[in-house]
Amino acid sequence: MRSFPVAWRWTLAALIVIVALAVAIWPRGTRDTPRDTARPTSAPSAAVSQDMRAAAALADCPQAAPGAVARGPLAGITLNCLANGRPVELAAALAGRPALLNLWTYWCPPCAEELPALQRYAARPGAVAVLTVHSDPDEAKALARLTDLGVRLPGVQDARAEVRNAAGAPAVQPVSVLVRADGSIAKVVVRPFRDTDDIAATVAAELGVAA
Question: Localized where (predicted)?
């Protein structure tokens, strides 16, 4: 009779050890999930003041011509213009003309090196329309970065990466999307341009427009 309580006690001790081990290794939810530290986590910026927009002195965004028809993967995307905060229906605004859309973020060093070259290219006679697409929620920092760089190109704010998704571009910066006059995408350039001549040569090869 005495052996039963001893066996019971050993069984109970074994169960306690098993439960303790299970608690120790049980997953703790998503708190320990690693995140990408290469990209800063940006919350949407507060309302951007008109003083900030005025300091950036950006060119106004293209607007749709009367009767313009939006076609291609960018149809249905409406983004706010960095110059004034007004909405721009992207495909309609670019309809009928080839364009270079440069996807960038304020925290990307290669983007900062490339943007001035894009501005110099855009000033060339015969250049296609160049539109910057800021792909981070913090619009205020985008305007500050452009002000520091002295880049006045027209641009839009794309906090949800709608252009990237529509173009099927990878989540890297910078990326340039070359768009034909009919709204179709000719090329997604997944690299920074070396200089203005590199931009011109790539545009000529993919869009057939020399500048």
Answer: Cell envelope
Name the helix (H) or strand (E) containing 134: strand 129-134
The stretch 135-145 carries a mean pLDDT of 96
What is the distance between the alpha carbons of residues 39 and 161, in angstroms, rounded to a whole number?
Answer: 14
pLDDT per position as a tens digit, 64-93: 888 888 999 999 999 999 999 999 999 999
3-state secondary structure of 186: strand
- Give per-residue pLDDT as tens, 93-106: 999 999 999 999 99
Q: Which residues contact residue 155 at a Cβ distance below 8 angstroms, ignoring those fewer than 6 apart?
A: 58, 61, 81, 82, 83, 131, 132, 133, 134, 142, 146
Grouping H, G, I as helix, E, B as strand and the rest as coil, residue 111 is: helix
Is the Cβ–Cβ distance between 173 and 105 less than 8 Å? yes
User: Where are the chain's structural domains?
Assistant: 50-207
Residue range 50-207 forms a domain whose CATH class is: alpha beta
Q: Give the Å distances, CA to CA, from 65 to 77, 90, 112, 177.
A: 17, 12, 32, 22
- Residue 206 has, within 13 A of its CA and on its CB side, a CA count of 21
Question: What is the DSSP annotation of 146-173?
Answer: HHHHT----EEE-TT-HHHHHHT--S-S
